[in-house]
């Protein structure tokens, strides 16, 4: 998984900290668009830099016009993305990452009074949102609906995500 974070020049007090973290990325470059200076930190293999990426995103979230992409797809919600990143990282410490995901989803489903039917998602970030899935004739395929929900939840990039 490749993560890129673009940081436009700003007057923010957080910029020096963000840039010092960004300089530690596998790749770092400075770009100019017109009169605007921007910095890009690239992590070709996100799994090798979880700590740094987490700290960098937390610090950069306060800056204006930050752009993050994962495998070339723009991230719309940094907070959601960071939650998914942390969950994925936790799953790597488990012998069975899929079981970890299912346990997290069950915990969310139990807390939210999930309807009494087979869960169509084993991801806590899709669980309960799966209630948005329309099962009527003529609706888009369930897989397409779940993919749209996964994108909204910033989880579609997760290697643990399994769609029915």
| Fraction in beta strands | 15-25%
- Secondary-structure-based class equals alpha+beta
Cα separation of the termini: 22 Å
Shape: elongated
Number of helices: 5
Q: What are the secondary-structure elements, in order, as H or E?
A: EHEEHEEHHH
Average residue-wise pLDDT: 86
Helix content: 25-40%
Described by strand count, sense and barrel closure, the largest sheet is: 5 strands, antiparallel
Number of strands: 5
Uncertain parts:
none
User: C-alpha Rg, in Å?
Assistant: 18 Å
Instruction: Order the strands across the largest sheet as they lie in space.
Output: 2-3-1-4-5
Description:
The chain is α+β, with helices and mostly antiparallel strands. It is built from five helices and five strands, in the order βαββαββααα. It has a five-stranded antiparallel β-sheet, with helices on one face. Helix 1 runs antiparallel to helix 2 and helix 2 (50-60) packs antiparallel against helix 3 (78-91). The longest helix has 15 residues, at 97-111.
Sequence-ordered SSE layout with sheet pairings:
Layout lengths: L2 E6 L6 H8 L4 E7 L2 E8 L6 H11 L6 E4 L2 E2 L3 H14 L5 H15 L30 H11 L12
């Amino acid at each position: 998984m490749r993560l890129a974070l673009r940081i436009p020049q700003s007057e923010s007090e957080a910029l020096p900290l963000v840039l010092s973290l960004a300089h530690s990325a596998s790749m770092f470059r400075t770009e100019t668009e017109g009169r605007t200076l921007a910095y890009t930190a690239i992590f070709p293999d996100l799994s090798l830099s979880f700590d740094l990426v987490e700290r960098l995103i937390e610090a950069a979230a306060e800056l204006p016009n930050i752009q993050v992409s994962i495998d070339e797809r723009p991230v719309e919600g940094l907070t959601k993305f960071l939650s998914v990143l942390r969950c994925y990282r936790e799953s790597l410490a488990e012998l069975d990452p899929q079981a970890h995901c299912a346990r997290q989803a069950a915990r969310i489903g139990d807390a939210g009074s999930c309807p009494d039917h087979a869960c169509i998602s084993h991801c806590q970030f899709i669980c309960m949102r799966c209630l948005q899935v329309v099962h009527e004739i003529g609706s888009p395929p369930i897989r397409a609906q779940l993919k749209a929900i996964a994108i909204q939840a910033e989880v579609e990039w997760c290697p643990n995500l399994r769609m029915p």
